[in-house]
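Quiz preparation item.
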């Protein structure tokens, strides 16, 4: 856990609750963007002052139109800028002189169009610095505070007077799509409070908006449509803070493929790190990944009930065997376990349910229960009271269609601390009295069993994170730190291992020889078999030039192999400085790979994979951000499918898993402590011996950050 106290957020209170709003570029009618922005403020019930600004008009409707920004009355907190991009810098400077704190810039033509907008972007940033005005956008669609009817934007969604406020806040890096999501969710009965379109984020960013909204008491759920961010560590801190507040963040991350990355760059100028790093970040804190509009709707409905499950033990109640099978499949896919009831609960159910009811989970009460619909809710109550049940999902629209049945179900939900989710079997017509009743009673309902299960899994995931964070403690960082070897871009293998050994990382037994020293050997330096490698910081990938040989079993074999490797290295890399030849004892065991990448956005991230095809072809790897504890290292091992090879698979000896876990956690601490100097670490392979034999690094590569190359780092 990174943070529990409140974040140092940017105060956006006057942006979302402005006392006065100027519309620069306002005009009559409804076709132009400035006209739409003015109309949205006038017709939606905004209670502050509205100041149109346009030299062409003396008045627009019943509002006085100002000829100059300098003439605006005060206080005026927000300027909506709906003019050509070339005029924006000048307008910002005028806003700064007029005491306007925020500008919402619709204009485009800046860094979102690439090099063509570079000059305009430079001028915009200069104007922002000089004026002190905080900018939303440019190239954004605006912001909303639906609770206070502050509609500072354009497009049909801003003209929708029926938008109802609720508990969800949304921040989107796409204005058009983001507000389309809002419209869809509104139709489904999900109310929002704060909504922001971040645009190309020349100033205020998605993270600024997210940090602000999670601290607002009226916000209970946050949704975000994200193309890319520039500060991964800040994103993770935000997730931890939201978790401490009990507020889930439903994150829809796009731009994850190569084509998607290019589209994101051209859209809002957000270049994105590898998706694996985002996915690793979203596995922490309050984040719940989603990938469709319906996910926002279903998960928001589930969280509105304010009930979290204690675990993942689910009970399914249906009047249809087919629905029960579908529920069971989806539970298995989403990590929910179908539980067994206690004997007393089963006896109680048998006393009143139809003879043909199935009392194995999923519980199929059969259509006969419709002869006495009260038995359905009675069964729900019994199952909800069972100590083996954490969460309940059901499907039975026809059984609950009568108002009194829904009222009774709402009472059961109120009396139990366990979430109960309903897959509504009938077409979800929002005009129907049943749907209106479900909404008014805050009964979480979903169109299909699959969508109900997705929402249930989100509740379980969030509950698990909350529980684990309660017992989390800070990682005990290594106290020892030594200078890095004085090197260029890469530390050679021998020096890299000596450096890592001094920090507690075990390596295989080895000695660095010159070719002449190997020629003069009278006996093997270590028991056979041996490994021979060329050692050169200029040849980081030795196998590609024939610079590595395994299974050396005799002295003559060693000398001949050393000659061949030296010749091959000098032929394929004639300019390389060869420091010598490494002779290592060849260990037997399971090969794993441990890697570190110091990402510009997220910082150091550690990767674990089983060697061979599992890493190279199957991509069977796990990631975590450094530093982390041994408990986290253990969870990484549990996530990779090839980890079974370490557990005594098919009669093989158990590997020294504890040694591997300690090594993995130690590498994460090294990555964190040296995050300003080290760009990459590649330990490939690490040989994990049998239980009690430890884990040793057989090959190591350390890449230095450009700013630290050629400089010895002072020890502390």
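Solution:
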């Amino acid at each position: 856990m990174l943070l529990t106290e409140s974040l140092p957020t940017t105060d956006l209170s006057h942006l979302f609750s402005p006392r006065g709003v100027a519309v620069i570029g306002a005009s009559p009618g409804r076709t132009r963007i400035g006209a739409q922005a003015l109309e949205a403020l006038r017709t939606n019930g905004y209670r502050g002052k509205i100041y149109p600004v346009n030299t062409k008009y003396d008045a627009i409707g019943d509002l006085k139109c100002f000829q100059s920004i300098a003439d605006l009355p005060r206080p005026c907190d927000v300027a909506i800028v709906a003019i050509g991009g070339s005029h924006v810098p000048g307008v910002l400077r005028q806003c700064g002189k007029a005491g306007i704190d925020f500008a919402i810039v619709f204009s485009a033509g800046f860094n979102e169009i690439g090099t063509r907008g570079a000059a305009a972007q430079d001028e915009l940033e200069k104007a922002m610095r000089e004026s002190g005005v905080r900018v939303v956008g440019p190239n954004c669609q605006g912001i909303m505070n639906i609770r206070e009817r502050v509609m500072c934007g354009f497009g049909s969604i801003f003209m929708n007077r029926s938008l109802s406020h609720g508990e969800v806040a949304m921040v989107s890096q796409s204005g058009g799509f983001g507000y389309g999501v809002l419209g869809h969710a509104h139709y489904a009965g999900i109310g929002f409070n704060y909504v922001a379109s971040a645009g190309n984020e020349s100033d205020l960013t998605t993270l600024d908006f997210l940090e602000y909204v999670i601290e607002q008491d009226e916000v209970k759920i946050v949704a975000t449509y994200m193309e890319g961010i520039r500060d991964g560590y800040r994103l993770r801190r935000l997730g931890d803070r939201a978790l401490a507040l009990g507020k889930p963040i439903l994150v829809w991350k796009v731009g994850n493929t190569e084509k998607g990355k290019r589209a994101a760059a051209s859209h809002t100028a957000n270049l994105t790190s590898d998706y694996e790093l985002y996915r690793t970040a979203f596995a922490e804190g309050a984040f719940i990944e989603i990938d469709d509009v319906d996910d926002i709707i279903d998960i928001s409905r589930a969280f509105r009930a304010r009930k979290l499950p204690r675990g993942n033990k689910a009970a399914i109640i249906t009047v249809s065997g087919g629905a029960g099978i579908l529920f069971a499949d989806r539970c298995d896919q989403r990590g929910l376990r179908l539980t067994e009831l206690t004997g007393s609960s089963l006896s109680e159910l048998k006393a009143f349910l139809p003879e043909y009811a199935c009392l194995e989970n999923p519980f199929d009460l059969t259509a006969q229960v419709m002869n006495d619909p009260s038995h359905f809710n009675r069964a729900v109550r019994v199952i909800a009271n069972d100590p083996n049940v954490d969460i309940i999902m059901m499907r039975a629209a026809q059984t609950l269609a009568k108002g009194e049945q829904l009222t009774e179900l709402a009472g059961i939900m109120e009396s139990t601390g366990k979430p109960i989710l309903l897959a509504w079997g009938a077409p979800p017509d929002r005009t129907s009295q049943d749907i209106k009743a479900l909404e008014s009673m805050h009964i979480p309902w979903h169109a299909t069993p699959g969508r109900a299960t997705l929402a249930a899994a989100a509740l379980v995931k969030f509950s698990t994170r909350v529980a684990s964070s309660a017992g989390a403690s800070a990682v005990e960082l290594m106290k020892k730190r030594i200078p890095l070897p004085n090197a260029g871009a890469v530390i050679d293998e021998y020096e890299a291992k000596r450096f890592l050994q001094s920090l507690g990382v075990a390596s295989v037994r080895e000695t660095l020889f010159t070719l002449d020293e190997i020629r003069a050997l009278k006996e093997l330096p270590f028991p056979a078999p041996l490994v021979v490698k060329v050692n050169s910081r200029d040849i980081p990938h030795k196998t590609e030039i024939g610079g590595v040989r395994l299974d050396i079993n005799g002295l003559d074999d060693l000398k001949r192999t050393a000659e061949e490797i030296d010749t091959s290295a000098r032929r394929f890399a004639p300019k390389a400085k060869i420091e010598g030849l490494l002779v290592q004892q060849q260990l037997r065991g399971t090969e794993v790979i441990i890697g570190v990448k110091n990402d510009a956005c997220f910082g150091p991230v550690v990767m674990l994979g089983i060697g061979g095809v599992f890493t190279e072809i199957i991509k069977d790897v796990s990631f975590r951000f450094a530093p982390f504890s041994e408990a986290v290292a253990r969870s990484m091992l549990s996530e990779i499918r090839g980890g079974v090879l370490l557990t005594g698979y098919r009669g093989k000896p158990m590997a020294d898993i504890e040694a591997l876990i300690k090594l993995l956690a130690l590498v994460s601490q090294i990555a964190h402590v040296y995050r300003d100097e080290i760009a990459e670490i590649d330990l490939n392979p690490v040989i994990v011996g049998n239980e009690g034999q430890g884990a040793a690094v057989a090959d190591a590569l350390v890449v230095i950050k450009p700013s630290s190359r050629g400089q010895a780092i002072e020890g502390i």
